[in-house]
Specification:
Layout (H helix, E strand, L loop, with lengths): L1 E5 L7 E5 L8 H11 L19 E4 L2 E4 L13 E4 L6 E3 L2 E2 L2 H9 L21 H5 L18 H6 L5 H12 L7 H8 L13 H5 L6 H15 L1
Parallel strand pairs: 1-5
Antiparallel strand pairs: 1-2, 3-4, 3-5, 6-7
Length: 229
């Protein structure tokens, strides 16, 4: 058996033992088995169980990641320690309050904007193969917040600093050849905190469960601001 330790804030030190021969290979499988068979009050988010919805982000063994694609350590001598995402208000157990995070996401207006009104569905808005390639490594972000909650700058200044996840999403539209509001988007970011609290610590890139590079996206935003403002 292996111990799953769902610590803090409401159940400090609760330890669950599982028979791994009767459990799926991922940490999410273990959590669901605990909830189904041992403790129905254990609370966490989950949906897709294949690393695409971003719901089950949590801190597992000291690393922010997705429970559904985090493999259970076969070493049964030591417990797996599980915490909610760090430096977030916690609703219950492994469920952080994502309200502020999604308000910040909405603030960068994450949708296509053009000079003329878009008649959606009337015709396709084309872009070249090369322009489309510029979006690779950006559109795959699933807003799990693993990167933002691993960032010390976001821990201390999350009220004003947008954080790596939201800034990567912002750059996804800044880099889109079909979007015409580059200058307006950059002007909204041109204050001391929104972008410039990034100190290239790069925890964001190290922890991203999708293998993306938010730190590079933030650097590209800074380059665009230097060039256009």
């Amino acid at each position: 058996s292996s111990g799953i330790n769902a610590e803090w804030p409401l159940r400090p030190g609760d330890t669950y033992k599982l028979n791994l021969n009767e459990c799926g290979p991922m940490v999410l499988d273990a959590l669901m088995k605990i909830k189904n068979e041992q403790d129905p009050t254990l609370t966490f988010r989950r949906s897709c169980r294949e690393g695409i919805c971003g719901s089950c982000s949590m801190n597992i063994g000291g690393t922010n990641t997705l429970a559904c694609i985090s493999r259970i350590d076969p070493d049964t001598e030591k417990a797996i320690k599980i915490y909610p995402l760090p430096h977030m208000y916690v609703v219950k157990d492994l469920v952080p309050d994502m309200t502020h995070f999604f308000e910040q996401y909405a603030s960068v207006q994450p949708w296509l904007q053009q000079d003329e009104e878009i008649d959606y569905g009337a015709k396709q808005i084309y872009q070249s193969v090369d322009d489309r390639k510029k979006l690779d490594g950006l559109y795959e972000c699933i807003l799990c917040a693993c990167c933002s909650t691993s960032c010390p700058s976001y821990w201390w200044n999350s009220d004003k600093y947008l954080g790596p996840a939201v800034l990567l999403q912002s750059y996804r539209w800044l880099a889109d050849s079909r979007d015409h509001k580059t200058k307006e988007r950059l002007e909204k970011l041109a204050d001391p905190f929104s972008v410039y609290r990034c100190h290239t610590i790069m925890n964001c890139t190290k922890t991203c469960p999708k293998g993306l590079n938010p730190g590079k996206a933030i650097a590209e935003i800074k380059k665009l601001m230097a060039k256009n403002l």
